[in-house]
Amino acid sequence: MAEDTTVPQQEQEQQTALDTSAPEATPGGRKRIKALIILLTIAIAAGWFGLKWIISARSNIETDNAFIEARIVPVSSKVSGTVARVLVGDNQFVKRGDLLIEIDRRDYQLQIAKAAAGVGMAENETGGEQMKVEGANAALQSAKARFDQAALDHTRAEKLYSRDVLPKEQLDRLTTAKRVAEAQMKEAEETLKRAQVEAGLAIKVGSKAKILQRKAQLDEAELQLSYTKIYAARDGYITRKSIEEGVNIQAGQPLMALVPLQEAWITANYKERQITYLKPGQKVEFSVDAYPDKKFSGKVDSIMAGTGAAFSLLPPENATGNYVKVVQRVPVKITIDANSDPERLLRVGMSVIPIVQTGRSSSDVLKELNPFK
Predict the structure, then answer these.
(1) CB 72 within 8 A of CB 349
(2) 298: closest CA among 262, 333, 261, 269?
(3) Which residues, including other chains, have CB under 8 Å from residue 334's CB and lie 6 or more apart?
(4) What sign does the CA torsion over 156, 157, 161, 165 have?
(5) CA–CA dist 352, 288 (Å, integer)
């Protein structure tokens, strides 16, 4: 009976030892498995996000070397004078056709009066010369009538003289009278020709030459008067205003500038290796430092024909000295979608971060990354 009780006790002790040793090994193994699973998950997630980032970077081209630009329209005067009124202020928005500056008009109104008087004088001179022509023509007709009468008297006198009715002395007086009438007629003809030449009737347009010249001077004076009012050539904002009332200005002097911000665009300087897949018409999403919480949209308009260095004032001469390769940048013009946020105006010179969506698929990027292709 003693042996029977000893065997079950030993088996019970071995079972208890196994039960107590198993829990000690299980928690450590589980921790290692969990750690491996976590590391594997992190590696997979990192690889996934890294691959996604590479695909996004290859298909969406980004740069921080980009700025807002717009046309700057200089406002200047076509005539000289004293500024009478300035109707706009700094940074004011104006519409096309709005009056900006008015120059003193009195000097130019005086020029118009002089030109109008010149037209009247030219018309009067032409009328007086025409009257001279008419008078010379009347004198010619009178001289012709006297010559015709003298010729008729001379013909009658010759017939009477042939019949011995008229004495020789009277025939001689009538002959002399005929010659005098003929000479007077020729003199009247020359006087008429001289009057016609002076009046300009000998040429087709000569009679109106003086009047046309004076009218052209009048039109010029009226045009100069119209230039005393300077209007806005287009919608935009006034900037660089450097004129006040009472200042004497010269023709062509810059007075202010007009910036149409509604027609602004982006000039993005992409690295030369970034423009491989850039094409006009591709969509662009960009952010501006002034509005960090807002996304704007646009599209690629055009790509410059050369790098910025090639069109600089002093382009590099790579053929001289030691050559060091420098990554060049190519300016890309991006138009801004006016409907993306019409309430927020983008000012000239603002920094922009544009992202061009080239539309490349993931398979295209992966094929490019494949080292075994």
Answers:
(1) no
(2) 333
(3) 66, 265, 266, 267, 268, 284, 286, 298, 299, 300, 301, 354, 356
(4) positive
(5) 5
Closest C-alpha to 64, from 293, 352, 296, 358: 352
In angstroms, the Cα distances linking 95 to 207, 227, 341 are 48, 19, 21
Rounded distance between C-alpha atoms, residue 146 and residue 213, angstroms: 42
Q: How confident is the model at residue 245 (pLDDT cuts 50, 70, 90)?
A: very high
For residues 286 and 57, what is the distance between their CA atoms, to the nearest angstrom?
Answer: 15
* Residue 195 domain-assigned (yes or no): yes
57 pLDDT higher than 70: no
DSSP 347: P
The whole-angstrom separation of Cα 281 and Cα 287 is: 19
Domain count across the chain: 3
pLDDT tens figures, 304-342: 998 888 888 788 777 777 778 888 999 999 999 988 777
242: domain CATH number is 2.40.50.100
Who wins on pLDDT, 207 or 103?
A: 103
**Predicted TM-score (pTM) of this structure:** 0.64
pLDDT tens per residue, range 114-124:
988 888 777 76
The whole domain housing 98 covers 73-103+229-258
